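so my prof wants the structure for this chain in the tokens format not the other one, which i didnt know existed until like an hour ago. anyway here's the sequence
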Amino acid sequence: MELFKTAYGKISSQYSYSSLSVTAARMLVEHILEIIQIEKASEMKVKDMRIFESAEEKLKQAGASFRKDDYASAFHNLNTCLELILKDRLGIPTTITSINTSTIIDILVKEKAESHMYLSEAKKHVLAIDNKIKHQGYSPSKIECISGIASIERLVSRLRDRRIEVTEDIRKKIFEGL
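here's what i got, hopefully its the right format
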């Protein structure tokens, strides 16, 4: 309630009631609702004693960024989602903060591991573009973002209840690169 009082006080001091457009009022309410949703999500994480987000949560965040036309943020979330999927499905500890996702996918594709075609598509539609964003200042298009989200959604769906089973030799190759 205090948030609304503060927001109303700021609006009324800057605008007369008649100058506040319906569009501006709607945008303010939407912004406040977004803040409330973020606050509720944070409270739930604390309540659940979860500090780190899951791949599915990062995918949802990518969708939210997409809806805001923030395609670069969507790709960053998709990249993190992909990394979390690989860690989870290959049994790589989440405490290892930096893995070479591209190299791991190359190994899995070469060895035709579980869902290798989906991993290859994710690399093509997410990693390549995210690297261009980070290292070249690239601005991705809406179509590229849709393709990236679609490739990760298919991968998440495909691996939802499966591990990526690999031989001990493949596991050694993957862990050597960590």
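also thought this was worth mentioning. The longest helix spans residues 22-47.
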